[in-house]
Predict the structure.
Amino acid sequence: MTTLRIDGLTVTFANRPVLNELNLVVPAGAFAAVLGPSGCGKTTLLRAIAGFITPFSGTIRFGDQLVSVSSIVVPPERRKVGYVAQEGALFPHLTVAENIAFGITDNKIKSDLVTELLQLVGLSKFANRMPNELSGGQQTRVALARALAPAPKVMLLDEPFSALDAALRDELRAEVSELLKSRKTTTLMVTHDREEALVVADVVALMRDGQILQTGTPAEVYHNPISAEIAISTGDVLLLDCAKDEAGKISSVFTPTQLSPSALPGKLVIRPEEIKITAAATGLSAKVIDLDYYGHDAVVHLDAAGARVDVRIAGPVELKVGDLVGLEHVGPIRWFPN
Amino acid sequence: MPKSLSISAVAVILLASIPLGYLVIRATGSGIAVAAEVIGREKTVTTLMTTISLALLVAFFALVIGLSSAWLIQRTNLPFSSLFLVLGTLALAVPSYVSTYAWIALIPNFTGFAAAVLILTLTTAPYVLLAAIAALRRIDATQEESARALGLGPTQVAKRVIWPQSRPTLLAAVLLVLLYVLSDFGAVSLLRVDTFTRVVHTMYKATYDRSAAAVVAMVLVLLAAVLIYAEQRARGRAVAAKSGLGTIRTATKIDIGNKKYVAVAYLFVLSAASIGLPIYVLVTRFIAVSNDLDISKLVSAAAATVTAALAGALLAMLFAIPLGLLAARYKSKVSTIAESAILVTHALPGVVIGLALVALGSKLGFLYQTLPLLAFAYAVLFLAKAVGSVRTSFARVPRVFDDISHSLGNSNWQTIRKVTIPIAAPGVITGFLLVFLTAMKELPATLMLRPTGFDTLATEIWAATAISQYGKAAPYALLLVLIAALPTYLLSRPDRAQVDQSRENVGL
């Protein structure tokens, strides 16, 4: 098991920093997801870890081994990384079995290992197929088996599920994360899909403009974001303008109070499931303006004294458009200054 | 690794520029005044006019015929459309001097400018046809449908959707036609039309005045270079034909109703003229002489043709691999210079390379009239074609495969050997076959450079036709067309995904 440790990593393209003094630790055997919008540098981070590009400064360590410092950059073929690209990128001229065997150098174990990996990804019957005869999900599985074959220290996944349709994606990513966790392979996946990051990863790292802003378990980054921006990137939020004074008192539509004149303007961050809908007489009064019904839950759009409020409720919905209800804030207070 | 590639590329460029370099030295060797006198001769000026007007007329008619047949074959409910495509492609297997021979054998006094326009149009129209079909196939039908939904009529769609995307391909095809006419030697010589190639060859044969011949040859090279430059300027940036994932959907065919009988008649006449007539003449003439056929001479000519073409094609690919790999994978100053240098070799007709290497060979006696020198001439002559196929094939291997191969423990060279080359191989082999095929049909450089007594199919046809022994030429011509038809047919099979790639390799 190998800890992945990145310190002060800077990568520049044409003198412009794409990664800017980035720090990240992925504990040995953990499955980490780097979540960020496109253009934030997450693929560059992956490519620097794999050794496809040479960083400007900073260090990358696989356990005790320094694979990248300013003067020594270990070439990718000697790093023992597994790399699964978007859409798999299987070698089109090789069969499934030959693709998986590609990185195995020990000829004695080759055929046994290929058989074992084919079984592991559930494609034993497809050993002699060519990549163009496989579905998208099957291709991703072969790409994963191929990357696992040389027993990599660190597995890198570059949005491996983005090309798949929704139902297949849910199933496959559960399979893949279970498989990697059972083999205790330290894994770093980059994605722009917040749900994907929260569902599969043990550790989520939030990335913006070439830096990691917050790292934590999915629950931590979802419930205790360190900024409103991060809260937005990890899930739906209701942002309420509200001020806070030195005494720690907060005035919002839910709790209107008198504040001292020196109160700081800021935002209150509330998740849609942290608001309870009650009878019209209690709490903040609001009117139902629209309903999005998802089956397992529903999102109710409300108008509360001119403010638009979205509330997620579980189970059967008895509300209809036009109903008058009361709203109550039941979650933690997350306040960030403007 | 790019370093060793760059070194080999520079070496190839230096080798390939020997003929042109030597030609420049010969042309200017007797002083600029002498060169200016040769250029100013009335004969040179009329030759220039003849060459330019022939090239432009042929390009115009080839474009009209090629575009109209491509549209009929690809976009209408024309009956037998795939047959017409195969026939159109097979016309490429008939070299211009063979179809000229066929027409002359059938129609006495078939000579002159108009005859040359007819023959060269029939020979070059397939290039436009293939380019236009490839361009039409590359455009996703959903683009056209979206344009129609946005309110554009068919003409507007052609102008604003199809033309911008097919322009680079069509311009390249027109350039190919123009260069074909400039460098054609067989047809114009048999039809007695004084274009540059014939004049250069006559000067070389009659007077052995090689400096004057070199000057006239330089004018020809400059003319070709101007055309290439103009095409590069006009081409602009290639436009991506496909956005998003998924496969390209082909357009639904337009119902042309009863006009399809006219269309079939039109394509039938074209096919009959370009391939039916030559085959008819070859076969009837062959039957007439089949009783006293010299089989051993035929076999030795075929063997000589294959030997020389194989050596030339192998050398061309050997030259092309560093250049093509560099151009496809490692953008640098060297690769830019390499691409320009290859473009220049495009401007060197067989007659010019023949002239330069004859002169050089007579200086270096050990090379004069040897097979290696002939192979070298082929390699330079078809370098652009070879590099084109190598470059396209390597450019098609996505870089992510390199990354994955590296992450699985392979070095640069191992990656090239295990991943890049296997994926690129089919394209490179297709390119090799094309060069091989083209070299077999090559006439002027072969005539000038072949070892004494080394008779190829092309030179035998030429020798017999030049003295009006049409029956004697028939077996050689028939064999040449049959050999050339096989790879041409393979390239035309419409059900193959590789067709478009192969066509790009033709130089389109």
